[in-house]
Design brief:
about 450 residues, alpha/beta, Fumarate Reductase Iron-sulfur Protein, Chain B, domain 2, Rossmann fold, 4-stranded parallel beta sheet, 23 helices, about 55% helix
Length: about 450
């Protein structure tokens, strides 16, 4: 992973034209130069030229970025502003250190195979005491003042049974024989080969701890499409939260652990239903481990080459649009609900995937109605939503209003983080549009069949 000093040429590519200002979501809210991508690049240039130091102001501006990559897409010189900012955050973390709470969580909890699930399980038991339910919204509001949790925030509840925990119980009950029996009971359609494609499923933290039903929907759809699905139980967080905060060491450690977890199996593909995780597994892992020697470099390249977003996998590799799956789905979903789609930044710009999710909506039998700005950032920005909640929701407001203007029954997306953020934004405006992952539209049809 390149350090800030190694990106000096990238920084010098910026001619300060200001094109990025028109697409930068943070600048759109604050309307001040340091909030723009151009302003942040100028600050990094000044730092490298020793004109400024790692001041509180510099740190604040580097942290006030949602990593949406809109600036890079719009830039006529292709300046990689997201990488410049990540390198600046890594420099800050190295020179100044992370705040104690962040450092403790990243080093001792996120990077721990046992402590992370234990802490989340404890939190799931405690959430009823700290939060009150909002049944019509399937979310929680705080009961009293809590740090970093605003009074209006709609908090997604932790699951009673985590996704990986559920898979462990399934294995303990019946082992591989039971798993195979379960697959056969689904009567999967195998349109391409007698021997099913072997796919490893990467859950990610949000699906594992908060939205396990999305993970189960993914397994159901993949098996229906004729794949043999393996869920490595020793998989970890993808490490992108650590990288986003500048903790390259923890991000590297998690990348290696995930590499080892999936290497145990002979897999044709590795898939995930989280856009951020997918961008991390495909791209960031290779960057993080680029200096770990030739053997590791080859291993991580082999790993990354297998990674597909689940929408990309279903459409491009499993070709469900050409199967009986497609025809049956359209017959079952005769109601033809109106669905609008939000492009996650890490999918549309990070992985250049836009058509696959829309094809899945069509295959489900729903009617797609595009919003005016489908690829505008929802404002989540990983931990940005936690540390800058009001700022995050100010960015989100335009997205929520855009969704409302479509009149859609459902807003679908392909990122669990975006789902949580969009749901909170709609809640603020009193909009009852249902928020789902695109794969859930297919899984619902399987149940109806």
């Amino acid at each position: 992973m390149k350090i800030l000093e190694q990106l000096s040429q990238e920084i010098n590519k910026c001619v300060l034209c200001g094109t990025c200002r028109s697409v930068c979501p943070t600048f759109g809210v604050i309307n001040r130069e340091p909030a723009s991508a151009r302003g942040k690049v100028a600050l990094c240039s000044a730092f490298l030229n020793k004109e400024i130091g790692l001041s509180d102001g510099f740190i604040k501006q580097m942290n006030e970025c949602v990593q949406c990559m809109a600036c890079m897409t719009a830039c006529p010189n292709d300046v990689n502003v997201p990488d410049i900012i990540l390198a600046a955050r890594a420099k800050i973390a190295k020179e100044k250190g992370l705040p104690f709470a962040k450092s403790f969580i990243l080093d001792n909890i996120l990077n721990s195979e046992r402590l992370m699930p234990a802490v989340m399980k404890f939190a799931s038991k405690l959430q009823g005491l700290l939060f009150k339910g909002v049944p019509e919204e399937s979310g929680l509001h705080r009961r009293f003042h809590l740090p970093l949790i605003g009074e209006k925030r709609l908090v997604p509840p932790l699951a009673e049974r985590f996704f990986l925990e559920g898979r462990k119980l399934t294995e303990a009950k019946g082992g591989n024989g039971e798993a195979e029996k379960r697959r056969k009971n689904l009567s999967p359609i195998r349109p391409f080969a007698d021997s099913p494609i072997r796919i490893g499923f990467f859950a990610g933290c949000l699906i594992n701890y908060m939205l396990p039903h999305i993970g189960e929907a993914c397994l159901k759809v993949l098996e229906k499409a004729g794949a043999s699905v393996i869920v490595p139980l020793n998989q970890h967080c993808c490490g992108m939260p650590a990288l986003g905060m500048g903790d390259v060491k923890t991000a590297k450690s998690l990348a290696i652990k995930n590499l080892e977890a999936f290497e145990q199996y002979e897999l044709d593909y590795i898939t995930t239903a989280c856009a951020t995780c997918g961008d991390g597994l495909k791209r960031r892992f290779k960057e993080l481990l680029s200096d770990e020697g030739e053997d590791v470099r080859k291993r991580v390249e082999s790993f990354a080459d297998k990674v597909r977003d689940i929408t990309e996998l279903l459409v491009n590799e499993l070709r469900i649009q050409n199967s009986e799956f497609n025809r049956k789905s359209k017959i079952v979903n005769s109601k033809s609900e109106i669905v609008t789609y939000h492009d996650p930044c890490h999918l549309r710009r990070g992985q250049d995937i836009a058509d696959g999710p829309r094809e899945i909506i069509e295959i489900s039998g729903a009617k797609l109605k595009e919003m005016r700005h489908p690829c505008r950032c929802c404002g989540l920005g990983g931990t940005f939503n936690i540390t800058n909640y009001d700022f995050s929701m100010a960015i989100n407001r335009s997205k929520a209003e855009d969704i409302k203007s479509t009149g859609a029954d459902i807003v679908a997306t392909a990122c669990p983080g975006c789902m949580i953020q969009i749901k909170d934004g709609l809640h603020h405006l009193g909009i009852n549009t249902k928020v789902v992952h695109v794969v859930e539209l297919l899984a619902d049809n399987i149940i109806k069949q």
